[in-house]
Design a protein that fits this description.
29% of the residues lie in helices and 26% in strands. It starts with a strand and ends in a 10-residue tail after the last helix. It has 2 domains: 5-147 and 292-312, 3-Layer(aba) Sandwich (Rossmann fold); 149-289, 3-Layer(aba) Sandwich (Rossmann fold), CATH 3.40.50.2020. A 7-stranded mixed sheet has the order 10-9-8-11-12-13-14, sandwiched between helices. The protein has helices spanning 14-24, 64-80, 109-120, 149-159, 174-183, 227-238, 257-262, 292-304; strands at residues 5-9, 31-35, 41-45, 53-57, 85-90, 124-128, 143-146, 164-168, 188-195, 202-208, 215-223, 244-251, 268-272, 286-289.
């Protein structure tokens, strides 16, 4: 058995860490984390963590490479102070799309990030809705991939949307969209598109299913530049959809995502707070669901050795 829970945060998303702290009723542990003028990162703990059960909250969001390096240095600091166990709480795992060699002479960066976390000294990892499930196999250390699925499902059910149809914005999202459609007792439709080479833009070509005179829920794991999402929204509106709701776990919202979504015929954009969404990227029709209670409960279960999977056995 390890010592007490110690909760630390980097600078990527302190608001989420504070919410987790409030759920657990455990104060955030203090640390100086800042960047020198030469961009070198400095970390100093305010108190010893020797023998303690330490959790570090740090999504790999923008600025991605700084936040990754910051997380690695915090973990190394904790390891050198003889922490009993270190869990990297990474609600959003960057480079997840680089999970295989899908063309010649390219890296598998997701594997590299997994190796770096282990090398820095992490004993466990905790993340939410990986872009590709096989990334779990890149880690030699144990971990838990959580999902915001039930949080999203419950929110949608509470809205009592009539005549629903769940839409996958591309074939790759069809399995997760199918699961949501089943949970909502709604039919499934798929927007078939093709991406050309490394061009981030994609063209919607065909609709598999029917959305005419129905309220549509577009479901995906993340919204980055919103090219796929916005394209699907316009395409579905032209196909006769009524109200359109877009649901995703990670609101990355790289430019020009906000502009694209603002100009799209979208009723509501439903995201979670796995990454920090700054005020300038928030839209009037945006709803942000908090994953803090989920993460807080899983942290508690990990600490006391209680099953995490039991949370999702419905």
């Amino acid at each position: 058995m390890f010592g007490e829970i110690k909760l630390f945060t980097g600078t990527a998303h302190p608001e989420l860490a504070q919410e987790i702290s409030e759920y657990l009723q455990i104060p955030l542990s203090g640390a100086d984390v800042f960047q020198f003028p030469n961009e070198n990162i400095f970390v100093r703990l305010h108190q010893s963590v020797r023998g303690q059960d330490v959790f570090v909250v740090q999504p790999m969001c923008r600025p991605v490479n700084k936040n990754i390096m910051e997380l690695l240095i915090i973990i190394d600091t904790l390891k050198r102070d003889s922490a009993g166990r270190i869990t990297a709480v990474v609600p959003y795992f960057a480079y997840a799309r680089s999970d295989k060699k899908d063309q010649p002479r390219v890296p598998i960066t997701a594997r590299l990030i997994a190796d770096l976390l282990e090398t820095a000294g992490a004993d466990r990892y905790l993340t939410i809705d990986l872009h590709a499930g096989q990334i779990q196999g890149f880690f030699k250390i144990p971990g838990d991939e959580l999902t915001a699925f039930y949080l999203q499902r419950d929110y949608l059910l509470s809205k009592r949307i009539p005549d629903m149809v769940v839409v996958a914005p591309d074939v790759g999202a069809s399995k997760k969209a199918r699961n949501l459609a089943e949970a909502l007792n709604a039919p499934l439709a798929i927007v078939e598109k093709r991406r050309m080479g490394n061009d981030p833009t994609a063209k919607a070509l065909t609709l598999i299913g029917d959305v005419r005179d129905r309220n549509v829920i577009i479901f995906d794991d993340e919204v980055d530049t919103a090219g796929t999402m916005a394209g699907a929204i316009h395409f579905l509106k032209e196909a006769g959809a009524r109200d359109i709701y877009a649901v995703a776990t990670h609101g990355i919202l790289s430019d020009p995502a906000t502009e694209r979504l603002r100009n799209a015929p979208l009723t509501e954009l439903i995201l979670t707070n796995t990454v920090h969404i700054p005020p300038e990227k928030r839209l009037p029709n945006m709803t942000i669901l908090s994953v803090a209670p989920l993460l807080g409960e899983v942290i508690r279960r990990i600490h006391f050795g209680i099953s995490v999977g039991a949370l999702f056995n419905e």
